[in-house]
């Protein structure tokens, strides 16, 4: 998996920038220019959308639809960005999402929510997500189990637990206060899009402006150096997986709001989409570099792609072939655009 | 001083230019090497030595310039081409594969095979012969290289160069991870090789080594050859340093002001043991004192430092700082109490290479820089820049990725980390490994300044002169035990060597 | 247990016979695809519930799987165990034909449920839903409603597109629409899940600003479909569901949503399979039939449920 | 993803063994003892199987069933072992498996096979697998796209292509020569188990006794060192993915033999199982260490687990929870058993 770092190693040595004057540009050449490539990919996609879909694509409503669709995956991608930045991975986000929606919509939770308000359901989803994340974190950090395997185990187990709790039924949410709080629009924008925006902003500050974020990057860049600098690496790893679980919990609340139902099938196979969005966004799978903005653009690319496909009424098999090709093309495009900046 | 070319050069590199995206590493380097000579390549960190030899090895393609072998122009398009021309290279960054065995590493890329199947018996036999020749029969062909020490890996790397039928062998700082005994061994092999007419290109920052085995010297500075074919025997050290650095550097250790008798004990280690590595180590370092740990590679000095620091959990014994006993096995506890460590392997243990300099400097000081977990980048950069300026970090820009700094400057950044943190005890493991002469003197001066300001310093170094020159007091470690302790000026290099018995590098 | 027996007789109004009398003990192996959507979950739940009702039945349920390789191995395990009968809802009928044949050759009757084997002799009896017929029913209903509007916009929200059953449903739907000169203008495929139903529908509604009718293959993904419709505030069309979940039937009953009808695809097929397996193993006859022995093929009826007849179907609908 | 290496870093520093005499033991402490932990896990599992299932578990027939189940995944795991040893990953194996079964069972292939024999179908499956693998390899090695993303794109695209070719129908194999050649037993053991065994032996020799294998390990362990030693890293990477594709092709043939049908749904989600088997088997996700024997044991553990569950008639939701817990337990057990050997 440290593929990325490696294949960049021999092929394109780590960017080095000249000393004096070009400093400003050199700074820019980091995240910003890498994101530029992505933005170009997204714009190209939008152009295709506009050319083929016209008004149906380029409308405010459609923008809202794309954003709403991006929201649930988007929120989880923010947590995943932290995990991947440490050099880890979390395959369990999809099934834990299912588990949170199920747990937060059981009869008893809904009954309590009927009495004490929507906060009960929200707390339930957040706590379940957080707990699952912490369990992942403990097994990975203190049990020394590879993240891939530990979270794969959680994937399987959480799905089973969700099925057990839901008894394989779809649980319809019937708590007016919850629906009132999370469904519908606020200032013309769906509430879940607001939540997404809030999580993005919080995630950006957490990664870029706090010691937590700094530690996350340091651990991903060089865990041994981080440990010898006095960072409690294991405890931090646990927190990072906990954080990812928390964002899954938030995603669960949004999912409940959006679909109005809790089901163990929620979030099925979503993990690969989440990881793909983060990695296409420019966060290194090998750890040590994470970008929230990149992740958001990555999520938007995938959401827009689906939208363009459906607007064009594409056959689903053809959609898949095109999707595969476009993923590769987007990554290649991003590389080509970012590459010259290295030499600037 | 300059020897005229008497014999026809075996290898000639002319006007070599190498541009990297964003950096000009070489800007016209010339080098001629005669058969059977040891040709030394000198230059500061970042002068372009490694880049030059990578061009020669086919690992980099030059932007311009010609390479001649026996007067004939050749093109070295890839590493295989270099090997086919008889140019073998021991790279500066250890280039072995941990997961493969000694024999497999040596024959990697030119495996003895029939129809793709490796001939394990033949390979093993040849490997044994090579190891015998290198004086290390104890390193068996089937040993996994990951289990060898850095010195052992260096020997494997050497064996690999020998396994190729080479006319020119390039050695990029081979002695950096070797102790004096091993260096002697290396030089014995070098002598053997040159006697057969094989040319050696030798890179090192240790001038005394150059004096011992070198024939001629080429000095490069900022990617340009500033002087060629200097005679080793007749060129004064001061001239060499001037050529390399462009200025005169006092190549001497700072004065020892002497620790006042009433200075309080800062660090006290008593009865510290780590099962299987070292045993019952006791030492104390007073405020303002520099204590050196001398010993052979593999004698367990790094482990002593790491155990004091909490990076390894001691099996018994205590570490006290200013009278407070530290919790064993807790790095964050040690850092919080005021201990800092500049580890042996800067790149793998000390630095987050892709992060900017300032973030590497402040990595241990969040407690004092951040408010409730919130970082003020401006204040953070200012704090880092202040220390960078105090240490004369070059370039002084703290926003660069630390990867782009030279080895000496990376080491200064490590020290800056602990200056920002304001630690009371500083543990230094091989503080000048791979650092050029100019930067070395600066680091020595800096360490002494720190001590003068009241920091207790514990230094490990494999260069015995360095320990003796820098420290106030020296402990000699052999086989995981302190065998002698005394003021640095009462011990000679010879004494130290006598005390540490011949050990194995494996 | 007596109480279970009572429930049983209540639910099965009509077909009362001495078939339910305990006979010799029967071990039935049961294997079905992963319960990754409501209908499939209901299948397994119903089969387990059915087995519970008989004290002479021991049901061995293999882990639901969408990997035919694993499912084959499960059947091999049942054969090795020497179960008395196997109820098999294959992930892919053709892929499990060989192993089913093996079971039959080993003397173990196989009851094939829902997805048909490629060789009729691989099963002692087959209980089939009617996927093609389901599409036809949905198409005919839409034709009835829109037959006089030749340029009506019809959209289809299919299930997992790679499954043959989805193709059958779509084909039936297209064929039926063709009869009245309509066609499918927009087609999207979801994954039988609430989540995917919601997301493709949100996009679909944007792609087609004016729709007259939608057929949604699966009522479980329909929960998401309806939510997306509600989120978008659209109601200019009517929606026909599929499979017939209790939720959707309640919506039809209440009559204040876009759902006008749903096409039943019985989720009790596997339960029927269990019943048949027991009868085959105990060599019983299907009551109400004159001929002896359990019939080879039973194709279940795929009726259209509307506000008019919803009371009749709601009690048997699956809670997705 | 270089998690494994990293988290081992701080916890247990690189094993060093004393120089002289203990060399033999040091050798043993490598792969063998690591595998020992796995064998113990497998034996424990068998013990549980025997205690709960008795004769039904501990019979020759049941062994055959487990082995047949393990065969298809097993063959693919051998190829995956090579990929992961280079530090890469291949998420596309499952959908490429589907594609190979579809392509090898189209009407035209079957018609040709009717004329020229089963070799036509076999060659078709192998070539399709190989081609898909090579495409992965080229995109990864020469396009510098992270393996995770490149093969994810292939996963999506190959599934779409398979659907398109099969027109989403299951294609029944009706070529007697093919069935004769691959179905049924040979010397009492199913033929596909023989194929599995052959591939294992070939894989073991290839990894441990050939220059190809040594180079694979070298590239995974230190790609730059491998390049400097004169290995053509990119070309080799391409071959390794090609090899993985080839094993998928073999898996496709076995799948066709076992199911008698080609379908685009074949191999769905199998990729995670394959990767899990390889990683649980002890091959490092970060690259540089691969073990064929470990992989085989990993595959057997998963197959046996499945078998024990069925024999015990566990509720399928509970099965999933148990599976998750057992995966983690097996890895922890393996670590505890291998750990002392490090310091020996
Ligand atoms: N791959 C690369 N990309 C960009 N710049 C590089 C690369 N390799 C080296 N450089 C730059 O080229 C210059 C020369 O580096 P080189 O490693 O050759 O120095 P050196 O003389 O070997 O130093 P040291 O004594 O520290 O080993 C440095 O400024 C370095 O930053
Ligand atoms: N993880 C380990 N397990 C077992 N033995 C170890 C381990 N790490 C180190 N050793 C042993 O401890 C001894 C000291 O190691 P090390 O090479 O770090 O000493 P050193 O004196 O610091 O030498 P150097 O100059 O290389 O730093 C050696 O015999 C080494 O083999
Ligand atoms: Mg160098
Ligand atoms: Mg050391």
From TrEMBL, chains A, D:
Q: Which organism is it from?
A: Myceligenerans crystallogenes
- A single Pfam family, by name? BPD_transp_2
Question: How does the UniProt record describe the way this protein sits in the membrane?
Answer: Multi-pass membrane protein
Record's keyword terms, sorted: Cell membrane, Membrane, Transmembrane, Transmembrane helix
Q: Under which name does UniProt file this protein?
A: ABC transporter permease
| Entry superkingdom | Bacteria
- Record's subcellular location: Cell membrane
Transmembrane intervals:
33-51, 63-85, 91-109, 116-139, 145-166, 186-207, 238-257, 269-286
- Which portions of the sequence form the region Disordered? 1-20
TrEMBL record, chain B:
Domain ABC transporter as annotated: residue spans: 11-247, 259-504
CDD domains, alphabetically?
Answer: ABC_Carb_Monos_I, ABC_Carb_Monos_II
The family database entries (InterPro entries) matched by this protein are listed as: AAA+_ATPase, ABC_carbohydrate_import_ATPase, ABC_transporter-like_ATP-bd, ABC_transporter-like_CS, P-loop_NTPase
| Keyword Nucleotide-binding attached | yes
Keyword Nucleotide-binding present in the record's keywords: the answer is yes
Judging by the UniProt lineage, the source's domain of life is Bacteria
Which keywords accompany this UniProt record?
ATP-binding, Nucleotide-binding, Repeat, Transport
Molecular function terms, GO-annotated: ATP binding
Q: What is this protein called?
A: Sugar ABC transporter ATP-binding protein
Upper classification of the organism: Bacteria, Bacillati, Actinomycetota, Actinomycetes, Micrococcales
